[in-house]
């Protein structure tokens, strides 16, 4: 136990700032794609045990779309977007420039469009971190799920079970035009990945 | 009536009329063991198939191969009879679709197989299962009847 608890406050501040810059770049990429202003919250870091994870975020209790990418490379981890269904529909419509079938019954093409939203933000996020750490990330193709947030988040967190007994969750909330929530962006790094990142920055 | 909550990578036991409940079963598998005579039972919420692949030591409830014997032992210590134990399992979904066949997140299916292997290794008969698919589950195990009630996003309520 305690793989993440060994991180100092100063190191956590650095991680938070790294993610802040990453998320800012992700927001810019999304704004460019949508032609609309995108705002984001300051990333929040939570270290939780697996027993606590089902209550880790308020969005866990809602039925949402999840877009998931596994990150490989020197600093592996998991990236997950949780989006309310209505926003998923809105994003796909903005992207495809037409109205789409009712949410919950997206066809393969619409699901791919939704997956691409995740891909763009993740790409922007990781590119920014690569920019000032030199660390290269290799995200998998995105997968899409529709379910309760807790069922989706737990399945993603389970992927880290071999390397950790707790999960460090970095959560950033993205909003459209100052108000309407786009979704929650989660980064779940492996314990060693954080060490790689803070070392690359000389902290 | 007492409801005993079981978290991820967690295992608990109880006695009728209590019920054991776990939510967030996506790729994870819920294992329910029941002794019909003493009406004692236990539930484990496993995340991964194989403890030998782990790089950190710890929690037996996390893995199929270690959770099954740990749950049996705990039940026996509290007066359940090992020879009467029967199992029901649920979960092991593949939550994400990747627009084709990919190896990522096949862990649900591997979890189910590993649980079955462990149950067979400890001579516990598997009475029923509700596994696979692409949807998460919440399960409630009634220690009075041995029924496992299942809820999903589609709001279906059924039992095994």
Automatic annotation (TrEMBL), chain A:
Pfam families: CheC (PF04509)
UniProt KW keywords: Chemotaxis, Hydrolase
GO biological process: chemotaxis
Every CheC-like protein domain range: 11-47, 109-144
GO molecular function: hydrolase activity
CDD domains: CheC_ClassI
Domain of life: Bacteria
Annotated coiled-coil segments of the chain: none
Segments traversing the membrane: none
The protein's name: Chemotaxis protein CheC
TrEMBL record, chain B:
InterPro entries the UniProt entry points to: CheD-like_sf, Chemorcpt_Glu_NH3ase_CheD, Cytotoxic_necrot_fac-like_cat
Molecular function GO labels: protein-glutamine glutaminase activity
Catalysed conversion reaction: L-glutaminyl-[protein] + H2O = L-glutamyl-[protein] + NH4(+)
Keyword field contains Hydrolase: yes
Function: Probably deamidates glutamine residues to glutamate on methyl-accepting chemotaxis receptors (MCPs), playing an important role in chemotaxis.
Family, per entry: Belongs to the CheD family.
PANTHER family per UniProt: CHEMORECEPTOR GLUTAMINE DEAMIDASE CHED-RELATED
Protein known as: Probable chemoreceptor glutamine deamidase CheD
Source organism phylogeny: Bacteria, Bacillati, Bacillota, Clostridia, Eubacteriales
């Amino acid at each position: 136990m305690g793989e993440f608890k060994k991180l100092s406050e100063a190191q956590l501040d650095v991680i938070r700032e790294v993610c802040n810059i990453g998320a800012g770049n992700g927001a810019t990429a999304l704004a460019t794609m949508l032609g609309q202003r995108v705002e984001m919250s300051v990333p929040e870091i939570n270290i939780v045990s697996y027993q606590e994870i089902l209550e880790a975020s308020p969005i866990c209790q809602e039925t949402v779309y999840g877009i998931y990418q596994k990150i490989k490379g020197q600093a592996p981890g998991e990236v997950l977007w949780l989006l309310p269904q209505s926003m998923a529909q809105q994003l796909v419509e903005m992207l495809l420039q037409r109205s789409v079938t009712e949410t919950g019954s997206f066809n393969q093409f619409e699901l791919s469009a939704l997956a691409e939203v995740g891909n763009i933000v993740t790409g922007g996020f990781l590119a920014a971190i690569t920019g000032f750490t030199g660390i290269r990330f290799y995200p998998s193709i995105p997968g899409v799920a529709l379910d309760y947030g807790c069922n989706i988040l737990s399945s993603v967190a389970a992927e880290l079970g071999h390397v950790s007994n707790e999960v460090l969750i970095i959560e950033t909330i993205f909003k459209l035009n100052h108000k309407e929530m786009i979704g929650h962006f989660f980064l779940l790094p492996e314990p060693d990945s954080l060490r790689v990142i803070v070392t690359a920055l000389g902290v | 009536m007492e409801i005993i909550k079981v978290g991820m990578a967690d295992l608990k036991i109880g006695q009728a009329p209590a019920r054991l409940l776990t939510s967030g079963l996506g790729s994870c598998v819920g294992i329910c063991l029941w002794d019909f005579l003493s009406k004692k039972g236990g539930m484990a919420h496993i995340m991964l198939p194989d403890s030998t692949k782990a790089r950190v030591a710890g929690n037996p409830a996390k893995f199929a191969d270690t959770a099954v014997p740990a749950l049996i032992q705990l039940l026996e210590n509290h007066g359940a009879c090992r020879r009467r134990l029967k199992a029901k399992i649920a979960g092991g979904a593949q939550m994400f679709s990747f627009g084709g066949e990919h190896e990522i997140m096949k862990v649900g299916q591997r979890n189910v197989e590993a649980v079955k292997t462990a149950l067979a290794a400890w001579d516990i008969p598997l009475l029923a299962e509700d596994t696979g698919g692409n949807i998460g589950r919440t399960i409630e195990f009634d220690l009075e009847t041995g029924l496992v009630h299942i809820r999903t996003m589609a709001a279906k309520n059924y039992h095994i």
